[in-house]
């Protein structure tokens, strides 16, 4: 807190001005008091990476909020020393954060790296503790882990979706609002001392891939397909499921790396994962396109299903 104060508590967010809770936080600071523009800065997520680096170096934030995929784009600039910032807190949210990315950021920054689970309808649903667990802010929200029929699932069991009730929004009450996130809730004691239950986030139900395995239907989560940190030179990737056995792979590579070679490494890694899960006869094709973000939210989905699996 002392370090944040000495740096003026300067807040920098990289997010689109649509449904982002981090951008809403920026607006809440700037709109009532225009002087806060000197310590709060917002940049759209589709801003060219070189321009984001320039803005960050100029502003030098103490608190940085960004989507994990944006931090992936910034990693080469961080490692090369081109990005010269020393934030005290980096908050990652809005997308799936793979452990490999968090580890790389921890290696290159002295900042505390926080993985947030939040949404615009309730803002910060959880608070990450010193043990890395996401404790539910039960005094602000009610989170229900349910199956497809809205029946509650047992503690520690992965849900099909989430029902959210916001206890702090008196202007527009939101009661049992459906989110397609898949979570598991735990209420066992945590070493950090918090008595709040905590949750594990698997991702969104519509991100799950489905295949006909040797023993029937097999579901695979994007979290099982994390290759960042395992393929050197790879910045971003995106999997497009075209059919039950055909996948398209979009890659974004660092300068100086051959995309075909990185595809070969990624393809070998993915096929081994599928084989271990009992799924065979899956083919990956290298796409001419790079990974594409959502035009509204600016988020990057790691998995896109362009087929009807029902």
Q: Please, could you describe this protein's structure?
A:
With 310 residues, the chain is α/β, with parallel strands linked by helices. The protein contains 6 helices and 20 strands. The strands form 6 sheets. It has a 5-stranded parallel sheet with strand order 2-1-3-4-5, sandwiched between helices. A 4-stranded antiparallel sheet has the order 8-9-14-13, with no helix packed on it. The longest helix has 18 residues, at 259-276. The model has no long low-confidence stretch (mean pLDDT 85).
Give the strand order, joined by hyphens, for the main sheet.
Answer: 2-1-3-4-5
The shape is: globular
Broad structural category:
alpha/beta
* Spatial separation of the terminal alpha carbons: 51 Å
Main pleated-sheet profile: 5 strands, parallel
| Number of separate helices | 6
Classify the beta-strand content into a percent band.
25-35%
Global Rg: 20 Å
Fraction of residues in H or I helices: 10-25%
Regions with little confidence, pLDDT below 50 for 5+ residues: none
Order of helices and strands: HEHEHEHEHEEEEEEEEEEEEEEHEE
Mean pLDDT: 85
- The total count of strands amounts to 20
């Amino acid at each position: 807190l002392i370090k944040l104060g000495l740096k003026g508590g300067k807040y920098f967010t990289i997010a689109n001005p649509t449904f982002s809770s981090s951008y809403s936080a920026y607006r809440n600071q700037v709109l009532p008091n225009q002087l806060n523009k000197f310590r709060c800065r917002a940049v759209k997520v589709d801003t060219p990476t070189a321009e984001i680096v320039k803005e960050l170096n100029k502003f030098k934030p103490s608190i940085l909020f960004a989507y994990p995929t944006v931090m992936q784009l910034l990693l080469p600039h961080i490692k090369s020393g081109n990005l010269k910032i020393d934030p005290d807190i980096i908050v990652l949210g809005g997308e799936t954060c793979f452990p490999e990315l968090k580890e790389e950021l921890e290696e290159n920054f002295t900042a505390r790296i926080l993985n947030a689970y939040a949404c615009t309808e309730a803002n910060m649903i959880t608070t990450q503790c010193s043990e890395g667990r996401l404790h539910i802010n039960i005094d602000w929200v009610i989170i229900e882990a349910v199956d497809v029929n809205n029946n509650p699932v047992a503690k520690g069991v992965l849900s099909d979706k989430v029902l959210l009730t916001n206890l702090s929004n008196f202007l527009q009450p939101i009661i049992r609002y459906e989110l397609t996130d898949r979570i598991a809730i735990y209420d066992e004691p945590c070493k950090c001392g918090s008595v709040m239950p905590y949750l594990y986030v698997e991702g969104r139900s519509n991100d799950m891939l489905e295949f006909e395995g040797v023993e029937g239907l097999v579901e695979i989560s994007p979290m099982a397909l994390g290759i960042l940190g395992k393929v050197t030179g790879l910045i971003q990737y995106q999997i497009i499921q075209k059919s039950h056995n055909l996948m398209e792979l979009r890659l974004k590579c660092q300068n100086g790396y051959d995309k075909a070679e990185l595809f070969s490494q990624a393809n070998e890694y993915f096929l081994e994962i599928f084989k271990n899960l009992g799924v065979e006869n899956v083919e990956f094709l290298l796409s001419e396109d790079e990974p594409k973000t959502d035009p509204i939210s600016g988020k990057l989905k790691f998995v896109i299903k362009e087929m009807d699996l029902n």
